[in-house]
Amino acid sequence: MSSLTLDKRLYNEDIKVSLAHIKMLASAELVTAAEAKTISAALLTIKQEIENDDLLFLASDEDIHMAIERVLIDKVGDVGGKLHTARSRNDQVVTDVRLFLKKAIMQIGQNIAGLQETLLSLAEQNQDVVLPGYTHLQRAQPISLAHHFLAYLSMLHRDGERLIDCFKETDVMPLGSAALAGTALPIDRDLVAKELGFSAISSNSLDAVSDRDFIIQFLGAAAIVMTHVSRLAEEIIIWSSTEFSFIELDDAFTTGSSIMPQKKNPDVAELVRGKSSRVIANLTGILTLLKGLPLAYNRDLQEDKVFLFDTVDTLYTCLASITGVLATMKVNQNRMGESAGGFSVATDFTDYLVKKGVPFRSAHGIVGRLVKWAIDNRKSLAEIDLDDLRQFDENFEADALALADPHASAASRESAGGTGKKSVEKQLKTAGANLSKFQTWLGQ
Ligand code: ARG
After folding, report:
1. Known catalytic membership, residue 257
2. pLDDT-based confidence at 256, cuts 50/70/90?
C-alpha cells in the first residue's frame, strides 16, 4: 500500500531534511566529506527531476522517503545507503511534516491577514452606515456597519494568535529520535535543528516519533477559523437575498441559474460555508486516528497527512475566496439604514426614561405599550409626536423625538466595546494595531 500519491507533496521538505542530515553526519565523521558531497549533489538533482516531472516513481515505492532513497542509490551506488545512518523514516516523516506545516501556517496567516485588511477597510469606510443588529435573527438594535465588521476582526485576531501558538508547537525538531529510542551514534541534533530553522529539539524520542499534537492543534485552530469564516459566509448569503438586499455580490463570485434568469446565486460564499464541514471533519478524523495508538510509531500515523493537507488547502482557498467576495461586494447603505429604523430604536426610548429616573423594568413596560400602540395605529416610532409620547409617560420631552433616528441610536452606545462612534473609532485603532503586529510576525 503505497502512500506516494499523498506524500509526494513532501518531496521538498524531505530533501531539505536529508541535506541537513548528511551535513551533520559529515561533521560527526559518520560519513566522509566526499561522501556527503556526492549524496548532497544527487539529492539536489533528484529535487530538480521531481520538479521537472522527470523522475520515474515506481508502484513499488512505499512512500516518498523510500522513493528518494531508491533513486539516490540508483544514482550514486551503495554510498547512497549511508544517508539513512542514525535516522528512521519515523523521525524523518514527522520532521518533514513539521517543516511543511511551519510554511503552511505562514501562508495561511498571510491569507488571514488579507481578509483582516479587507474587513478593516470596509469597517473604516462604513462607520456612518447603520443596519439593524440582530438577535434570534430578529431586528434588535441599530449598529454601525463598521461595528459589525469589527466583530469579525476580533474573531480573526484570536485566530491569528492561535496560529502563532500552533507555529511555536510545530517549531520543534524530532529528527535524531531515530526509530523510537534515539541512537548510539554520535549525532548532533542541535546542528540539524539550526540548519533546518527549528527553534528547539524534541525532548523524548518516543513522544517525538508518535506525537501529532501539533497537527491536532493546527486542525483545531483551523476548524475555529473556518467556523468564523462560515458564519461570515452565511451572513453574506442572507444579506444578498432579495428579502434583505443589504449587499450586492459581484458577478465574479456568483453564478446564474440554468433555468431561472433572475437568479444570482452566492455560490462562493455557500461553498466556503460548506467546506467548513470538511475542516471540522478533519479535526475529528485526526483525533479518532490517534486516540487508540500505543507508543511509539504506528503506521496508522501515515493517515495524518490526509487530514492535514486537505485542511491546509481548504483554508487557504476559502480565506482567499471570502476575501474576494467581501472586497468586491456593493453595500446598499440606504436599505440597511431603512431597516435599522422602525422599532429597533425602542431600547433608546427605554434608556431615555431610565436617564430620567424611571426604573428600567417600568420603562420597559411603558415602551412596550408605546410600541404596541404604534403598531395598532400603523405608525413608526419616527412618526409619533410629543403628545402621543406623553400619553405613555410624562417624562418624555421634545428631545425624545430625536430618539427614532437609528444613526443617533447607534452613535450613542459609547460603552467600551459598544457600537458608539468613539468606541468604534477606538476598536478600529486596536484592530489596525493588532493587524500590523500580526503582519510583522508573519514577515519574520
Ligand atoms: N510513510 C510513512 C508515514 O507517513 C513513513 C514512516 C514509515 N515508517 C515505518 N517504519 N514503516 O508515516
Report:
1. yes
2. confident
- To test the pocket of ligand 1, the residue of 8, 65, 84, 91 to mutate (highest count of ligand atoms within 8 Å of its CB) is 65
- Residue 319 in grid coordinates: 480565506
Give the CATH number of domain 346-404; options: 1.10.10.10, 3.40.50.300, 3.40.50.2000, 1.10.40.30: 1.10.40.30
Catalytic residue list contains 228: no
* Alpha helix (H) residue ranges in 181-266: 189-196, 205-210, 213-239
Cα(94) to ligand 1 centroid in Å equals 9
**Does residue 302 line the site of ligand 1, with CB under 6 A?**
yes
Count of all residues that appear for the chain in the document:
444
State in Å: Cα 197 to ligand 1 middle: 23
Of 60, 121, 241, 257, which residue is the catalytic one? Answer: 257
Fold of the CATH domain 4-85: Fumarase C; Chain B, domain 1 (1.10.275)
C-alpha cell at 204: 523524548
Asked whether the whole model's pTM tops 0.90, one would answer: yes
For 186-202, how does the pLDDT look when each residue is reduced to its tens digit (9 = 90+)? 999 999 999 999 999 99
